[in-house]
Write a structure and sequence with these properties.
Length: about 425
């Protein structure tokens, strides 16, 4: 563990935060706006970048994200160099406390803890809004170090404060971390229309007093919302109220509108074209959502994985799709044969397969065959224009056993996670119209 994390826990032993009261909430459906980091609506948006530069940066962020997954799944597999910070792909607004305070945070399906920067801060990164002040909220409650939520942290990452409160440390694979007091608070989610908001009292969150986001590049970001499968994640905590369902519909990167993250009754995907595949949660890594990829079809050619045990993570935070190296080689060889193209030899880093762009190219039907679900992808889900070349948004995984179905492949699909029914559903959709 990062030595500063241990030191930070020691410094927090003297802190004491008093408990407050909270309430209950009924089941309902609602949605939240997701802002892609390259959207003109994002604080990360850089208007001077070209489309090709944005795509290249997304590919580099994918490498950083992949390394984070590798670190969590097997610390011995983590490459020594993380190329660039990943910044987070999607941002979401929510309100915390009573009276409610608006926060802008990174939405992350690859981690669990929801946390914000809090006062009194020991060491915080700059933000352009005041720190959250738990003493000014009537619904804040510090959790005891003997409480069940505190035990969700490994023993080396939790301590007892001077008043018996739970002090936590949560570290990410890129050396980002948050250290603070674990508490409960009222979290308010929903759209800009206040009639569509819903409150979740007693939500577990990290009141971060020592924080470092190595991938932060905007002072507007104040924390992170974990949407993974572990017990501390927001979707796990509010599971009973939302029917254990959430979904998203991701727009292309250059869209001037927001994507949607839906919960409860609004999350259900129905209608023609819906396909479903088993959701596999592995107890050793409950945060991650695994599917089983059986094969990829390119026209009439089918390349099989030969696996059936949950071999690929579905993730909204990784732009590119990663598949195991041997399988990738067979997939690319079949794609090249069907397209009848010569691979570009001088590849722009970090791409693995590009070919000259020709007008009016005919692309074959390409589908990812998950167990029980054939997901047919469009060229925009698999290819992007980089200068005068088309490059594949699928790359080889450098580590055995780690594959990721990324967010470019999921653009213009409604993707529903039914955590109780243990399935993920896909429906091709124009996400700008929902």
């Amino acid at each position: 563990m990062h030595p500063f994390v241990l030191l930070s826990l020691a410094l927090l032993f003297s802190l004491s935060i008093a408990p407050f009261a909270d309430g209950t909430n009924a089941l309902r459906g609602f949605s939240v706006d997701l802002i892609h980091r390259d959207s003109p609506l994002s604080p990360f948006y850089n208007p001077s970048l070209t489309s090709s530069e944005r795509i290249k940066n997304a590919a580099l962020r994918s490498i950083s994200r992949f390394n984070r997954f590798a670190h969590t799944l097997d610390e011995n597999k983590l490459p020594q160099t993380i190329l660039i910070p990943e910044y987070g792909e999607y941002l979401m607004k929510f309100h915390i406390g009573n009276p409610p305070v608006e926060r802008l945070a990174i939405a992350d399906t690859g981690s669990d803890l929801l946390w914000v920067q809090c006062s009194p801060c020991v060491e915080c990164f700059p933000q352009d809004t005041p720190l959250f002040e738990p003493f000014k909220s009537s619904t804040f409650n510090a959790l005891a170090c003997g409480s069940q939520p505190c035990t969700y942290f490994p023993s080396r990452l939790r301590r007892c404060g001077s008043s018996g409160e739970c002090l936590y440390a949560y570290q990410y694979g890129d050396q980002s971390f948050t250290v603070g007091v674990l508490g409960t608070e009222t979290i308010t989610l929903g759209s800009k229309d206040e009639s569509q908001t819903v409150q979740f009292p007693n939500s577990i969150f990290g009141c971060g007093l020592v924080n470092n986001l190595t991938y932060r590049s905007s002072d507007r970001v104040t924390g992170l919302v974990g949407l993974g499968g572990g017990p501390l994640s927001l979707v796990s905590q509010i599971g009973d109220q939302i029917g254990h369902k959430f979904s998203y519909c991701l727009l292309p990167y250059n869209s001037n509108t927001t994507s949607k993250l839906k919960f409860g009754s609004e999350a259900t995907v129905t209608g023609n074209g819906v396909v479903s595949t088993p959701l596999i949660i592995k107890p050793e890594v409950p945060t991650f959502y695994f599917l089983n990829l059986e094969s990829i079809a390119i026209g009439q050619k089918v390349v099989s994985t030969g696996q059936s045990d949950g071999n690929i993570i579905i993730d909204s935070g990784t732009p590119l799709t990663y598949i195991e190296e041997t399988f990738y080689s067979n997939f690319v060889a079949s794609l090249q044969e069907v397209l009848d193209v010569e691979a570009t030899q001088d590849l722009p880093f970090p791409f693995n397969f590009c070919f000259p762009h020709r007008e009016n190219m005919a692309f074959p039907d390409i589908s990812f065959q998950f167990t029980g679900a054939k997901v047919s992808l469009n060229p925009k889900n698999l290819l992007f224009l980089a200068e005068d070349m088309l490059c594949l948004a699928v790359v080889p995984s450098t580590l055995s056993g780690i594959s990721i179905f990324g967010n470019i492949a999921q653009i213009d699909f409604q993707v529903e996670y039914d955590l109780e029914g243990k399935k993920v559903s896909f429906a091709p959709t124009d996400c700008s119209k929902i």
